Amino acid sequence: MGRHGIKVVLGLGGWDDSASDKYSRLVNNPSARRTFVVHAVDFIEQYGFDGLDLDWEYPKCWQVECEKGPYSDKQGFADLVKELHEAFSKRGLLLSAAVSASKRAIDYAYDIPSLAENLDWIALMTYDYHGQWDKKTGRVAPMYVNDKDADKTLNVNFTVSYWINKGAAPEKLVLGVPFYGQSFSLVEGAGTGLDTPTYAGGEAGDETRARGFLSFYEICERVRVKGWRVHRDPGGGMGPYATAGDQWVSLDDDLMARHKAEYVRALGLGGVMAWALDLDDFTARYCGCGPFPLLVNINHVLRDKPAPPPCSLKEIQAPTTTEFAETPSISVIIEPEYKPGYPETEISMKEETGRTLDGKPCSGVMFRADDHDCSKYYMCINDQYMELLCPAPLVWN
Questions:
Q1: CA max distance for the chain
Q2: Does 128 reside within a domain?
Q3: Contact between residue 173 and residue 270 where contact means Cβ atoms under 8 Å apart
Q4: pLDDT, tens digit, for every residue of 249-268?
Q5: Mean of pLDDT over the chain
Q6: Which of 132, 140, 148, 238 is buried deepest, with most CB atoms within 10 A?
Q7: pLDDT band, very low/low/confident/very high, at 363 (cuts 50, 70, 90)
């Protein structure tokens, strides 16, 4: 891969690898940290990697259980990152970390100003906000807050805003996009919508073979071949979900992936991180719209690549299924206090007046139409209107 100009960094950690106290013991021992830094540099240079990506899930909150780890994990992790940075920067090596999207874990785990100074980029794991552990259906990676949400922090927009307000430079934040869906098995007779009681994760896919989890291409197959019905958010600001019998799955389709890429451009974030490339339809066998449909849509926005063919789940809906609503525009109304730059814990109850566009205030109005061009719209970001383009063939409505 390096011969093709692709940077390859070594990943360390992961969910299963974060269950024990080993990373905690490492970061809380200065001597062990020094030894680790030396060994990391030697290993990376010996095998020709371009850097290291840290994926401890998570300091203090081992596998999201914040009662497990000591409070000192936060400072210890920051110290390890700083010491790695000092060694790596002399050699031109990259240093990054995958970090939590949970407000609670963020508060316990990360010295954000220190990490932002010493990491080349910070990969936000902005997915798995909901899953089978909730015992009810929910969206895997909701873009914005919903007025029915019990926890107003469980959405991508809040996570990004919170990291920025805590000291992370936007250009160092890389937005995580799931190329998979969280799936559920519904309690009989309970319904098929959001917040429906469930008794287990969804049935395992033939390829991924994990209950409660389906790749994007497996979801395409269920819609295209098995007749699962697709349900869309009327506002267009959330990814769809699909149902059949007692099976339910939430996902980001190509429209949502493109919307998130537009969001990245609007906020000046560092880019997009996908979990994971092999969960997209890389063979073009299942979705019927070319290889890597999710990745191609993201590259269309961020790298100005040619527009891909339509590939939303509406287009591949099996003809035997019940018709569903028209594909909505990507607009959504957000509660004013959750616009980017104003996370829940730091807002003022006094209404602020932001900058204006044509004499109209920005704060409190998340989206605005363009008066002359229906292919454009404006998003209020940090009290400034940013001009965005609707993904073809959508228009602002």
A1: 65
A2: yes
A3: yes
A4: 999 999 999 999 999 999 99
A5: 86
A6: 238
A7: low
Residue 312 lies in a domain: no
Q: Is 314 helix (H, G, I), strand (E, B) or coil?
A: coil
Q: What is the DSSP letter of 21?
A: S
Q: What is the CATH number of the domain that holds 167?
A: 3.20.20.80
Give CA–CA dist 145/149, Å, rounded: 7
Strands of the chain (E only): list them: 9-13, 51-55, 94-99, 121-124, 173-178, 180-186, 198-201, 213-215, 229-231, 241-244, 247-250, 271-275, 356-357, 360-361, 367-369, 376-381, 384-389
Name the packing angle between helices 254-267 and 156-165 (round to 10°).
20
Give the model's confidence band at 395: pLDDT under 50 very low, under 70 low, under 90 confident, else very high: confident
Q: What is the pLDDT of residue 147?
A: 82
Domain region containing 116:
2-178+259-263
Nearest alpha-carbon partner for 280 in 175, 179, 141:
179
Token pair 């070594």: residue: 10
Least Cα distance to 364 among 349, 355, 356, 353 occurs for 353
What are the tens digits of pLDDT across the range 78-136? 999 999 999 999 999 999 999 999 999 999 999 999 999 999 999 999 999 999 999 99
Question: Among 263, 282, 312, where does a domain finish?
Answer: 263
- Name the domain boundary from 243, 263, 283: 263
Residues in contact with 38: Cβ distance below 8 Å, sequence separation at least 6, in sequence order = 87
Task: Decide if pLDDT at 341 tops 90.
Answer: no
- 57, 218, 221, 262: which is the annotated catalytic residue? 57
The backbone torsions φ and ψ at residue 328, rounded to the nearest 5 degrees and listed phi first, read -80, 165
* 239 vs 114: CA distance, rounded Å: 34
Q: Looking at residue 1, what is its pLDDT?
A: 64
pTM above 0.85, yes or no: no
Helix (H, G, I), strand (E, B) or coil at 202: coil
Is 301 contained in some domain? Answer: no
pLDDT reading at 207 higher than 60: yes
Q: Is residue 248 part of a domain?
A: no
- Give yes or no: 57 in active site: yes
Query: SS3 for 119?
Result: coil
Structure tokens belonging to residue 327: 């594909």
